[in-house]
Request: fold
Amino acid sequence: MNILHETVFLSGQNASPEHARKIAVFYLLRNGNPDRLFAAFLKSLRRYPAGMSYQAVLIQKGFAPGYIHPLTRSWPTPDGCMPEIVEVSDEGFDLTAYRKAAQLIDCIKLLFFNSYSQVLAADWLIKLDSAAESLGPGAVVGATGSWESIGDDTAFPNVALRTNAFLIERARYLTFAQRVQTKRDCNLFEAGPDSMTRNIMASGNRIAIVDRDGRVIGPDDWPDARAFRSGNQEQLLVADNRTMDYQCAPLRRRKRRARLAFGDRATIRPQNFIIRWWLAIAWHRGWL
Reply:
């Protein structure tokens, strides 16, 4: 198992086959988060195979140097290889850690999952990768996207891929110069006037979300996609705490969330109380 840090040492064990170096899949493990989040992510990977090989990378944020989380060896990679571990300090936020990890891992494409992620359909990686390939070089795809504005910085509709689960070419990701040390920095990177999404589109490249059936959905169709804050999110490919907040919300709060995301184009469906109650328990216990 390889461990990479802002100071780095390598064990050389279980080196991944060369074909797996095409895509690195990162999961952010934060010290202080409950272990159930990581356990639920791994359980979702066992339930829903990726459909193709990849390099697994665990970003350990805020742990003691050399520590290896006991669940790490149970990451079910398609070829049975152990994850590489990237150690980062507890400074900054998710995007801070992603940036440091991207500098250390040499793969053509990078897929980042945040600490709350759970995949919801088989062949999730091949669906995301095929979508990016279909959109052409420089494309970026994710599991969720929104039109929500962020204060006075952006006008509605403000198209932005969410960074809970997104796939991007490494070379392109490392060109972004924005500072991501504060929560506001992260919000601006995701949805500000000079966001990742706006940079990609300004360069003539394309962005899309991918649903659990592998459909590639452009921004104009996000309100009806039944993915993020749309319908009952039946087509969502990757869940996280924000999608579950919507899923378990009573109708009044659900309407507010959906209209923040998509305004008058919001597609809102009620959800039975029993189902909402069961989903809240299933999410907390990693049963999805």
Notes: The longest strand covers residues 23-30. Confidence is low (pLDDT under 50) at residues 7-20. Residues 62 and 181 are 15 Å apart (CA to CA). The radius of gyration is 18 Å.
